[in-house]
Write a structure and sequence with these properties.
Elements: E1 2-5, H1 11-26, H2 34-42, H3 47-55, E2 58-63, E3 70-76, E4 81-87, H4 96-110, E5 115-121, H5 122-130, E6 134-143, E7 146-156
Parallel strand pairs: 4-5
Antiparallel strand pairs: 1-2, 2-3, 3-4, 5-7, 6-7
Helix pairs in contact: 1-3
């Protein structure tokens, strides 16, 4: 599994990541129904907003081992929030997610971030849990007239710490 970190200014690559996110959300095997998926897609950041939001974060990208094309990614804010974590449906359940988490953990350690958090979808909560995250709370998000369930997950990066602040 190849991993890469994007430079902030790689606009074309950042927009390619948006396509990966949209494909993951629209996956028919998603744990969300059609109404929920449609609401999520409708409320996903528009291209300009997406670029602004993502380009100021640390970005790690999983590349297909054969083609070296991006197949998944995670973004890390300076406060330790994994803001986006998406994988192409065709590359899910192949170990890429774990490698992305490891790369994000390395970035966090460089930045001296003591813990990672995310707001994980139903689709992502199990992969986060398998990487050592704990569910802090279940959340319901209202998008238009549709409710989506997600999970606040957290992982301490301080050895031996169970700090939940």
């Amino acid at each position: 599994m190849l991993m890469t970190a994007l430079a902030d200014s790689e606009t074309e690559n950042i927009m390619q990541l948006r396509s990966i996110a949209l494909a993951a959300i629209a996956d028919p095997k998603s744990d969300y129904d059609q109404r929920q998926t449609a609401a999520w897609l409708k409320n996903f950041p528009e291209p300009e907003d997406w670029h602004v939001r993502v380009s100021i974060q640390k970005i790690v990208v999983a590349l297909d081992h054969a083609t070296e094309e991006p197949v998944g990614f995670m973004t890390l804010r300076p406060d330790g929030l994994i803001d986006f974590a998406f994988m192409q449906p065709s590359h899910q359940r192949r170990g890429y997610f774990r490698h992305l988490v490891e790369a994000i953990e390395n970035q966090a350690q460089i930045l001296k971030i003591p813990a990672l958090e995310s707001r994980a979808s139903r689709n992502a909560v199990v992969p986060f849990l398998s990487c050592g995250f704990e569910v802090i709370s279940r959340e319901l998000v209202q998008l238009d007239a549709v409710e989506l369930e997600r999970f606040h997950v957290r992982k301490s990066l301080i050895t031996g710490s169970k700090d939940k602040s």
